[in-house]
Design brief:
Elements: H1 6-11, H2 16-26, H3 30-50, H4 54-65, H5 81-92, H6 97-109, H7 113-137, H8 142-151, H9 153-156, H10 194-197, E1 215-218, E2 224-227, H11 235-258, E3 276-282, E4 285-291, E5 293-297, E6 303-307, H12 311-320, H13 322-325, H14 329-332, E7 337-338, H15 355-368, E8 373-379, H16 386-404, E9 409-416, H17 428-431, E10 436-442
Helix pairs in contact: 2-3, 3-5, 3-6, 3-7, 4-5, 4-7, 5-7, 6-7
Length: 443
């Protein structure tokens, strides 16, 4: 079986949107939540990999794959409390280890202990749900599951956050040499000085003049080498010539800098509040996009976290407006709202974990506007076979419809590359605007 990095799959559950929404729910800062997750992930995954209760773990993760635990990470997951409690018990036992980890992570991240406990349950649910889904999709048996966990041990050391250690909690051996603790060390006062263990005769180097004969020194290993004096007739001239040359070189360098024309420095602009940073390296230049979050208020007074100007903000504003109330079906046909945080696995109709946050927001919005009806459209770029693209887009549109699971979704249709504008030969970044999923309202 090829090596699969489960760590990357689990980390994929905690994108910027998830961290932002979790911070809002728990009343903590996003930086604190992010730091806490970075410490809890290695604890949970390390415990999973190093657990001796592999058989019980296998049963639990298979149960989790059918429980819908991933779809309720940030909502009511009370129906899966027994699974979460069981997985934590199998990983950390029934002692005080879990309490010690929670306290250490709380202190490291600067968030409250009760918030850390809630976050521990979220990370545990994400871990068991992701692993369970992988086990089910790949039809693993108990033996294959055991091999899968063993394959993860080499990945653990790269997961540890800077400035946080598990050695003091007795978990250093989970992470190899990176976080290993010393065992059975003799206390310093009782240690025997090195010179008492391996006494030796001190080596005294004598000065050698240029006119005297070459001196031969014998090392402790029995090898001989000749000691060459630095006091030769040519050495004295370099003592003043070398500094002079360096001084002249330094003066020439400053003269060149003073006469060098100033180069224009590019200035980048970003939004004021950042919750997501996407960086990509193109021809050596780094492009950074920052997005501002906002709280969208629904008619009932409920709130949800979204990007400013994102699809949630747009459609709530539209549904409240007279433009929607007075619009005809023909007018609505050309008014599409693009998802801005909904993605699929490459070449598949499988949603990425981060996408579920925006779908849950859309469910809440539709529930607030029960008379609203929508149609889902999915699009691809021009690259590849047109029929294959049409089939894939249709599958993706229906995947979104199934995920929303609402009678207010009347139709889902894939358009393939029919409306794509960017040539197939263009770069992937340029073709990105043609790959999208959107909704429009229907009357």
């Amino acid at each position: 079986m090829s090596t699969t990095n489960l760590i990357d799959l689990i980390k994929g559950q905690f994108g910027p949107s998830t961290i932002s929404q979790t911070a809002t729910q728990l009343g903590e800062s996003e930086s604190g939540i992010s730091k806490a997750i970075s410490a809890l992930l290695p604890a949970i995954i390390g415990g999973l990999v190093n657990s001796n209760a592999r058989s019980e773990l296998f049963t639990t993760v298979k149960e989790a794959s059918n429980s819908g635990i991933l779809s309720n990470l940030l909502n009511d997951n009370s129906g899966n409390e027994s699974i979460i409690t069981r997985i934590l018990h199998l990983i950390f036992g029934s002692g005080d280890r879990l309490e010690a980890i929670t306290s250490a992570v709380s202190e490291y991240s600067g968030i409250r202990k009760d918030s850390t406990n809630s976050l521990m349950n979220i990370v545990a649910a994400s871990t068991v749900g992701t692993v369970g889904r992988y086990v089910t999709e790949n039809n693993l048996d108990s033996s294959s599951f055991d091999s899968l966990l063993n394959d993860q041990k080499n990945n653990l050391s790269h997961l540890l956050p800077a400035g946080f250690s598990f050695a003091s909690l007795g978990l250093g051996n989970w992470f190899g040499n990176v976080d290993a603790q010393a065992l059975n060390v003799i206390p310093e006062p009782a240690q025997t000085p090195v010179n008492k263990i391996n006494p030796s005769t001190p080596v005294i180097e004598k000065d050698v003049t240029a006119s005297g004969p070459a001196k031969i020194d014998v090392t402790r290993s029995g090898q001989t080498h000749e000691i060459v004096s630095e006091r030769d007739s040519g050495g004295s001239i370099w003592k003043w010539l070398l500094p002079l040359l360096l001084l002249l070189l330094l003066g020439w360098f400053f003269w060149k800098q003073c006469n060098k024309k100033a180069e224009a420095v590019p200035v980048s602009t970003t939004d004021s509040t950042s919750t997501e940073v996407n960086s990509a390296d193109y021809n050596g230049d780094t492009v950074i996009v920052k997005r501002e979050t906002m709280v969208v208020i629904l008619p009932s007074g409920k709130t949800l976290q979204a990007y400013k100007g994102g699809i949630e903000d747009q459609i709530v504003t539209f549904l409240k407006s007279d433009d929607y109330k007075n619009a005809t079906e023909d007018q609505l046909k050309d008014k599409w709202f693009n998802f801005d945080n909904l993605n699929f696995e490459f070449g598949k109709a499988v949603l990425t974990p981060d996408s579920k946050v925006q779908l849950e927001n859309l469910k809440l919005i539709l529930a607030e506007f029960p008379d609203a009806k929508i149609k889902i459209g999915a699009y691809t770029d021009k690259k590849g076979d047109a029929n294959t693209n049409l089939k894939l887009s249709n599958e993706r549109a229906n995947t979104v419809k199934s995920s929303l699971n609402s009678s207010q979704v009347l139709e889902a249709e894939g358009y393939g590359s029919k409306f794509a504008k960017i040539p197939a030969e263009a770069s992937d970044k340029e073709r990105e605007s043609d790959r999208k999923t959107a909704i429009r309202f229907v009357k």
